[in-house]
Design brief:
alpha+beta, 328 residues, single chain, 30% helix, six-stranded antiparallel sheet
Length: 328
Amino acid sequence: MCSILFIIDELELKYFEFNQLVTNHWLIKEFLDRDYSVFVSTKNLLLLENAAAKTICYSTYSKNGDIFYTNQPQKFLINDFDVVFFRPDPPVDINYINACYILDFADKQKTIFINDPAAVRNFNEKLHLNYFSEFAPVNIVSSSKKEIKDFVDFYGYAIIKPLNRCFGNGVYFLKDNDRNLNSIIDNLTENGKVAVMVQEYIDSAIDGDKRVLILAEHVFDECVRKLPGKDDFKFNTHSKEFFAPAELTLKEKSQASVVASKLTDMGLFMVGLDVIDERIIEINVTSPCYFIKEINELNGIRFQDILMDKLISFIDYKSAKIYAGKNY
């Protein structure tokens, strides 16, 4: 049975137990229930020693239907683990990037990374949506106030997003002739020094966006609709009242399959797409939430079983490649 390391967010480790809103909680619990050996760490516990990538980490265990970790830190080589789930939350700041650099010194022919930290580092969840521009709303990436204002003037309404944040932080609705327009642009671009994404606003965003889930080249039929928060234009509250059941259209599944194929080749295996009206507005690769609790409650299923069957099959497939001495 293989050993697994989860590199999670510092705040997530602090509230490790009883956190069913977090995808890592479900994955760790399911691995433990299947008798895998699971350890947890955070990006600030990674280190480079004698040119070898290592981590300080904690062993996990399950008890009375929940998960816990020991209070005894241990040091291991990253390559002591068969599988590493690299899932810290953004922002993708210098500390995040440095963690990715440390993991460059792990042998990726010995350990499976989900997702590959170098690929995560090189893929911006907003900007690189334009690898699939045919599926995306019209957008620009710029730090120029003039370019942004010209875009808003042409389309009338737009959404402005920082490139390296998450959970909707710093995302604003822009309207031509709004008195706050200059202030919002100056704030997010730090007066023209920082590039942001500006997307055409999709009117049906009022009905929320779908989270489409990908594992390697598999697109799950199970999905969920995230609804805008009270007095907001976007999803911003992880509470059951802001979720609704959803189904993928044939077009959405086809688009997601194209995305899945390209990202799998890049080493990005666990991915969540945000979709509005058959257009992809964001590609989440850092720590995508699979909304397992919500999908279960809305559909009366155990989505964790469906996900874990695919995930373990994928790990077994990758492990067989390693043991056969092949690249993956």
